[in-house]
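Subject: Interface between my chains keeps coming out wrong

I've been trying for a while to get a sensible model of this assembly. When I model each chain on its own everything looks fine, but I need the whole thing in one frame so I can look at the contacts. Pasting all components below, labels as-is. Any help appreciated, I'm running out of ideas.
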Amino acid sequence: MQYMFLIYSEEAKDPMPGTDAFNKMMAGFEQLGAELAESKRLIAGEALNPVSTASTLRIRDGKTEVTDGPFAETKEVLGGLYILECENLDEALEIAAKIPVAGWGSIEVRPVMKY
Amino acid sequence: MQSIAEYIKQHRSQILSVLVNHLNNWELAEDALQEACIKALQKWPTDGWPDSPKSWLLTVATRKAIDNLRHHKTGQQVIHQLEPLLSYSTDESGDDEFPDERLKLLFTCCHPALSQSAQVALTLKTICSLSTAEIASAYLTPEATMAQRLVRAKKKIRQAKIPYQIPTRAQWLERLSSVLTVIYLIFNEGYSASHGDEWIRENLCNEALDIGYLLCQLLPEEAEAEGLLALMLCHDARKNARSDADHPLIPLEHQNRSLWDKEKIHKADVLLKKALSKNRPGSFQIQAAISALHCQASSYQKTDWQQIYYLYQTLQQWQSNPVIELNSLVAYSMHHNEEHHQQLCLERLEQLKHQHPKLIDYTPFHLTHAHLLEKIKNYPAAIQALTKAHGLTSNTAEQFFIVQQQERIKKELEHTAND
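Reply #2:
Try treating it as a single job with all components included. I did that and got this:
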């Protein structure tokens, strides 16, 4: 069963490079990455550039509109994601708890639809 | 002699939990068991009861499930897993034969990834075998809404693959607390008498107690499970003193204590001592200790208010909410009788109101206010506070009680005026 982990946080709360908190976060991600690679769960895992680089596109009445910024103006923004193979939701939630950002942001866990 | 319907209700959740665990498909398990139960109701009255009714139900349900699975693409593999159930011979002693399966199912029902209202409904449906109509009526919800809530919850269990398993150590505390909360919510819904049919409310309390016992039996190491059961028993012991023909709601203070069930109080006491000896404190044990102190007191005045006050202070470290603080204030005011202490309580109440503005819409806030005002003999203000409390509750029993309080204070007022 595949689950997508959407990693949300307030960018202002993310640790700044060069700080201890940042190094700790990166170490956390590295350790998690190694665990995921070893357990062969990892299907995809990416960090995203800041939300200031986002563009949103919609087509309405045949007209394409592109705007600056994310789809919804919320404090917590999508900062990264994983797609992982897990046995069930409990296992997925256990991994979600190891994503460093869970300590100040939130992790949305969604099962990937199967056809 | 037990009727077939009673027998089914008593054993349904055991059989269902075995089926769900083997099938890994909730809807299919329920459908198969439903068909087996219908067949039992048709056949047993004429053919006589089978030697082992539980095995009969399990075998027939398994056969139904296998029939249904033949139409599924992936059915073959599951059918293979189900075969042992066809020749399973069950124990008819009446004991819970599949404790692990039931526990797994209970943890699934109370999974925090489901909404709390869905957790409660699923638990009542699956573990307590209440019908959707009964649950809907207990929660004053239209039956169709309740049915939809159950369907949606089961769909999430399947689509998000919430497992049927005992949680891992890492998740244990959160998950156990979720289960305990659901049980207590069910009990309180039955006990608080806010609405609904009398019989169903009584039923809810008994169901919650039953799961409480089950949980203590399945998890003998868990002090909080014993704490919860002790707490529910303490409440339940006072049930018969909470109302009479003339008074739909009698507060603790005015209850006839000889009506309290001594046996239940004793049971609660034994459980609580057992729990406390494990040295693993928790909020249910503290609440049970408070409740037990009330149960052991010979009168409202002679209650050990000091200890109750300290216990409420401790409880706040576990769960901070303004209601606990209100209760803590009452305990403090009961223990300290001098007027300046009552003034202190009134000031604290004022502070609380500023910290939690929503409290002014909350009946117990005004009842506490009235209690403190009455203690300093500010009767007109106490009557006013009771009027506010009256306007905020739709519970007729509570309204009746408030009016009585007001009349009592009015008499007190006339008394002082005459002196």
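Reply #3:
Confirming on my end. Chain A has one domain: 2-111.
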